Amino acid sequence: MLRFENIVKAFTQGETKTYALKGVSGSIQRGETVALCGPSGSGKSTLLNICGLLDNDYEGELFFDDEKVTGGINAATKMRRERIGFIFQRYNLIEAMTAFDNVEYPLLLTNENKSDRKEKVLSILKQVGLAGHEYKRPDQLSGGQQQRVAVARALVKKPDLVIADEPTANLDTETATVIIDLMRELGASIQTTFLVATHDSRMTERCHRTLNLQDGMLFDEVVGSVEEPQTKTLAKGAKHAEHQVSMV
Amino acid sequence: MQSIKLAWYNILRNRRRSLFTILITVVATLVLLASGGFGLYMYQGLEEESARDTGNLIITRTGYFETEEDYPLQHGLSGFKEIQQHYLKDEQVKAVLPNVDFQGLISNGEKTAIFMGKGVEHGEFLAKGPFINFIEGHALSAEVEASADPEILLGKGLAKNLKVSVGDIVTLLSTTTDNVMNAMDFKVKGVFSTGIPELEKRMIYTDLNSAQILLDSDRVSSIAIHLFDIDNTSAKLDEVQSQYSELEVTPWWERAFYYRDVKNLFDLIFALLGIVISLIVFLAISNTMGMTIMERTREIGTLAAMGTYRYEITRNFTLEGLMIGLIGTVTGIALTLALIGFLNVANIEMPPPPGSTQGFPIAINFSLGLTLFSSILLMTICAMAAWFAARSGARKPIVEALSYV
Ligand SMILES: Nc1ncnc2c1ncn2[C@@H]1O[C@H](COP(=O)(O)OP(=O)(O)OP(=O)(O)O)[C@@H](O)[C@H]1O
Ligand SMILES: [Mg+2]
Predict the structure, then answer these.
(1) What ipTM was predicted for this assembly?
(2) Contact at 8 Å (CB) between A147 and A91?
């Protein structure tokens, strides 16, 4: 589904150039839920932004279904509109819109007709447990409820890929668990691929796989699954890392 | 529909700021419509005054206003009675007033001065209303006994110069059409003021007949046609011109030099006012819209991340600006109408304008054209200001916008 090769991303601030990603490669299968872990500043958000086509200023190659991502900003916008959903750490709901309107928005962008939209929105809001809260605005909802709306918004158009940058970091443990389960449930039913940056061990436990970023390098790929609890082995010097290090 | 609803909620979201922005538009609308409407009211007054002064239409021999005469009434009209009779039957016509323009010397027996005279019919004073102010005496009588001296009205400055007052006799000297000097005695019937000192030093009025006798001619310089309704001027102009194609028919506005000067000046003032107000509105709305967009940077980033095109984002903000403009102008128009109504009832007087002794009531004309123009102008400015602000906001890289706190 998603493959990235030798991604290098540098930020230039005045004279100094800092490498946020020092050449990372990896691939994610359709329907996979992949956690992206690593300490703060390791480049998780940077990699997510590139994979989510929010940032096109990098070196290296990105493939969607084996097709190289090229083209200008409008092509990327179209791609995000049709195939990618986002969940943010701070929910990022549109304040002026009700829960219903927020969830409906992606469907407006994909030109679904009105009755279909209504049906889909109401159904997914019910699935995330917000029946009865449809016409509340974000400021009338708790953080957990807002993130439920955000999950519904990301998934309502049945995207191929969902990018989530620390979706549970602002939530208490209990709520976080609910959100994680919701993401998994809703995602599984429509074969969506998840790429989730997280510090949350309950999140990684529920993922098929964990990618570990450290200092801009992808260090290990721990294969695990929700069904069979994984044993985390730190395979130092995995093939990608070696490859990358020599590149920089 | 969805985006209108959204724009509306966004306007409600920061009520204080939206209210401020709307208020600016309201005030701008009110200022534009009230000052413009007052200007139109003034123009209307001046137009009516000008038309009353010269007559709505002035019939002369072709080229009369361009060529100088070698002797009095050289380019005058003969047979004015026929034209007069013809148009007096017209029910749109209030009066048909022939007059004779002439110059010469005026003397009190000891001292002599130059005069500029107008020979008019008695109807002049009836049809034109109070076009001159009498300081002393009255207007010319309708009939004068055959044995008595004909009557004359003198400008204030001229009367002072010659040291004459009502009841005194003055002598007018002028060249006749045959190029000989002719003199006639006149009895001063009144002394008037026009508000223009230069004119008051020279101006006299006599009756038409006496002027013709003095000049030994039965011609007149021009015939003024006064209409009841100034709006009929253009139509009447065509009609008279085709009726008397050998003569020249001049509408009042071509002779209304004062009106044109005043109008040009005020047009300029109103244009400048409009530009200044537009600029203020633009800056104010740019500023508040800029703040709004700054505050909503993360929202813009979110919308963009979800696949909204930049132009769609800009469009939504522009719609917000347009709605603010709409609310503002509609309120402004309503307030202007209320002001017009209030002025109608309150009847507040303006101090007398220069050259006049009478004040006039303040009023504001409501003009649909001006209202449409102002509203469209202001709404466009609001939309443009929002568009500018939104465009720079929507240009920010998405990643940067998303991490904006
Ligand atoms: N706009 C930027 N300008 C300069 N440097 C940046 C910028 N964004 C990120 N960086 C740098 O890139 C590196 C990776 O940042 P990134 O945000 O991807 O880390 P992260 O793994 O998401 O961290 P966190 O867990 O804190 O979110 C950091 O060293 C950071 O300082
Ligand atoms: Mg991050």
Answers:
(1) 0.88
(2) yes
